[in-house]
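Hi all, posting the design record for the shared folder.

TITLE: backbone redesign
STEP: 1 of 1
STRUCTURE INPUT:
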């Protein structure tokens, strides 16, 4: 591992990794990632729900993602060692150990994912899985409604599970989906596409099921969100976003194509 002796060498080392930002800025991002702050909190300028204070972003999302990737790839190990040992750095990553032989490399102590980021990734994965399940169930309703088979269903809906009966009945009964995840998928769906024609997925029946709904759910599953959804309750909680209710109105920015929300007066 290349040893960095002073700030000038550290700056040259970072430039060699195509990090053009000031060394102090990179150091802040590294230290905050090491202290398990989420990546989102480092570049977002929204209001912190816990403190009520507006966040001041350290740098752009692209820079945070790049530094996190370099950390995970071990390409910042020399810089991590510099932060930990250099006397001219005001915020070291670790307190020095009495026995240097027992010292563990800083890069080994860094978490692979910050806690909130890991939970958000897991949440996005569950949104994908649930959206795929819902798409399959809506497609079943459309198919059996339009087919010539005398098949109907009872004891459930696309969230609780569908139990078909009649001629050529499917052998399996769909298992239920966690209602909270169904609400989350509904929020992601409405943010990406448009308001659902029902208030909740539980209200989708064989009579009103649409192929367009199944297709959009599949699009949501195949192209998942990489940013927290502002109207999803779980995204709001994990990313400390302001709470936006279903009664808020929304409008679309024609330049960016993104939706914004405001409360009805």
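Okay, here is what came back for every position:
SEQUENCE:
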């Amino acid at each position: 591992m290349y040893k960095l002796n002073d700030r000038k060498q550290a700056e040259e080392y970072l430039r060699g990794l195509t990090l053009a930002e000031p060394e102090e800025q990179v150091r802040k991002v590294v230290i905050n990632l090491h202290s398990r702050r989420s990546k989102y909190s480092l570049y977002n300028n929204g209001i912190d729900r816990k403190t009520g204070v507006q966040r001041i972003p350290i740098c752009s999302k692209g820079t945070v993602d790049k530094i996190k990737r370099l950390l995970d790839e071990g390409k910042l190990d020399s810089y991590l060692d510099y932060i930990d040992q250099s006397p001219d750095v005001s915020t070291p990553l670790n307190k020095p150990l009495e026995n240097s032989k027992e010292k563990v490399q800083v890069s080994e102590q860094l978490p692979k994912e910050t806690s909130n980021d890991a939970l958000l990734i897991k949440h996005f994965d569950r949104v994908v899985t649930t959206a795929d399940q819902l798409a399959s169930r809506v497609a079943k309703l459309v198919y059996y409604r339009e087919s010539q088979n005398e098949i109907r269903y009872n004891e459930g809906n696309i969230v609780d599970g569908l139990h078909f009966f009649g001629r050529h009945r499917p052998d399996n009964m769909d298992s239920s989906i966690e209602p909270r995840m169904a609400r989350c998928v509904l929020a992601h769906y409405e943010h990406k596409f448009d308001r659902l024609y029902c208030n909740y997925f539980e209200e989708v029946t064989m009579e009103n099921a649409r192929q367009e709904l199944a297709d959009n759910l599949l699009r949501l599953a195949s192209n998942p969100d990489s940013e927290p959804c502002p109207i999803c309750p779980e995204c709001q909680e994990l990313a400390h976003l302001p709470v936006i209710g279903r009664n808020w109105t929304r409008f679309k920015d024609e330049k960016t194509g993104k939706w914004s929300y405001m409360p009805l007066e």
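COMMENT: The chain has a mean pLDDT of 76.
Let me know if anyone wants the other runs.
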